[in-house]
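Run log, item B.
One chain of 798 residues. Sequence copied directly from the ordering sheet:
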Amino acid sequence: MRRNYLKIAFRNLIKNKFFTLLNLAGLGLAMAASLLLFQYISFEMSYDKFHERSADIYRTNIEFYKSGNRESESSLVSPIVGSLLTENFPEVEEMTRIVVLGPDGILSNKENATSIRNIYLGDSSFFNLFSFELKQGDKATMLSDPFKILIGEAEAKQLFGEADPIGKTVEINAKNLDGGAEFIVSGVFKDLPENSHLKPGVLISYPTLFQFVGHQFDRDWLWNQTYTYIKLNPQSDYKKLEQDFDKIVNQMNEADWGDKSYFWQYNFQPIESIHLNKTSGHEAEMGGSAYNIYFLSLLCIFILVIAYLNYINLSIVKSFQRSKEIGIRKVSGAFRYQLITQFLMEAFLLNILAIVLALIIIYFARPLFGEYFSVHFEALNFQNPSIWLIYLGFIVLLILGSAFYPALIISKFNPVKVLKGIGTQKGRRMGLKKMLTVFQFALSILFLIGTFVISTQLNYLQNRSLGFEIDQVLVVKPPKVYNYKHENDIEAFKQKGLQIAGIQSISGSNAIPGEEIFWYDNNISLKDSDFSGAFKMLTVDKDYFQHYNIDLINGRQFEKPTRDKWIINKSGAKLLGFENPEDIVGEFLTQGEIIGLVEDFHQESPKNAIQPTLFACGFVLNYYSVKIHGGKIKETLPQLEASYKTLFPGSPFEYFFLDEFFNRQYKLEKQFAGLFSIFSILVIFISCLGLMGLTAYSASLKTKEIGIRKVLGAKVSTILLMLSKDYFKLILLAFLIALPVANYILTEWLKNFAYRIEINWWLFALPGIIVLAIALISVFGQSIKAALRNPTESLRNE
């Protein structure tokens, strides 16, 4: 019996090629797109969940308040925080602190050298919290003593080949080590998972820190330079712990400072939420966006829903054409459950073919998709099984629902009525068909409006005036090999560089545009003033503002490195209470004199508000930016490299272009906008596939009517209007439904940006017109066949 059902199902699918292909294309594309998208969503949501008991691990963040107003938040806290937590709260099972010693350096032994990124210092309890895999080393002792180091598997092979690296000596040369320092290799860790927000290149024992800065910072509340992580007892309430810990902190603040208007408090952020929820500054990695994942999840769901609504719609329509077949089967003695089984078999067979098509599409699309998101999708990511079970359950539910509903409708047909050709094409089922069509196109319009708004906002950010110039600027990293005459060599590099014909200017700074400034002070105030505010602090050289063409509004530039002269930006002057910012020049901070006022500029992306900033002039900077005359990069670069290598032998000449570096801040938005655009087009395409099927069916029902109208002199345009006017009304209704929903959702999304576009009428009207035009073209494509058909063909049996 089952074999017979299967044989009949195959015959019906082959017999109705047009509807079969429409359903296969819609379901196959939707499954492939949603599975690829879901894989990315699952990967983003899997960050840091590979750690054992990851749900019990938290990072400590600090919030700064002034006169009851929250001024800022940072993920860097004082080392004393970790000590107090372990000393006072038994529910804290483990605690570890991390200090980022530098972004890069050179790791070497006597024979070999390699560049490294992210030099971390970590407590001996590091591997009690984090489940990074070790290849060699004893967890209990490998980070317990000063000058011990863990290196990566790849670095161990580069330096030592197949030899055992444990106990061997290596040297790290980096800026924050004041040159080179030697370490004993105590462990080797395996390649780090991609879904980790912590990515140490090497891990140095935390006690090493005291060999450089002493123990005085270990109990200093103001030395906020450590990432502090804790693991709590599973039964603990971390919110209650926050409250209890703040009571201790407040007591100490009052005893030490006596200023109740200025205080700070701490919160504990679950490690699993860090990647997608950048709530604080000074993050260890750029991170993702919870809002983007939320929207992409909705997109993933709606693509599948639209495809299956399409399938239900076409199945119901097709059932009307098979009504006589069903009537004959019932008259011949077929039971209702047998009819349901037959149509379920057809539905499951079609879904299996759609799954096969989806897997073929995924096989070819996955490398491109992974490259687009800079993620390696070597295989499906099952690191988050609960998320995958939800997805698979949703797919099964859609398949069952889309199969059962049409089957139940078909099995209810009255054999007497259907054999007379009545009672199958009217009533609420036709109303349902229209409702499903409206819902499909409302979603299509909603997504296209979203595409327009997202793209317009991204374009606005990229074209907004930054307040400085980044074109034709090459950024050179300072030498990784340091020595006592480093400052003189850096100045010599600048002077030699300026002698190269293609170079216009050279300037140094501790952070370049497009990079977060890590140095900050939450208690900047004018001398003899009770008011203070939170400021970013940036060290630059004396040529910085002229180099970037940043407007000096009042005062003077720096003349030489100094510790008691400052330049402030306009936002900073306003924060300190100056209605006319120019008046601040000549005033004194507790740290020194303000000698100049500069125009605000976007140190970071225009996604974020401009921060109050103070500029100091100093030596030994992190970056040197070289402005090159237009069109002379190829000729200039070799000369600059030769000059660099002469002064800094042993240091690699590393550079990048500032505009590319700055624009990488838009990476998430670009990916999101691109993906949203592609999938919105896919949604419209799938909806139009269904519309083509519905139009073909409507035209077949009106074959004789069209023939009679043509005999009576009706024009082709009149017949096209007759066949398409109902769909025009449905799409217009879909637009009216999508309008308020899109306005609400996109207004909420835009609130994530400090600088944003106004939602204008054309951002709604144009997508609606586009969807309407595409839909009508789909309708006309099928309608025109019916309109051009010779009336004698449709009336030959009359």
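Observations after the first pass:
- Residues 1-47+287-426 form one domain.
- The chain has four domains: 1-47+287-426, 54-273, 439-462+666-798, 473-665.
Flagged for discussion on Thursday.
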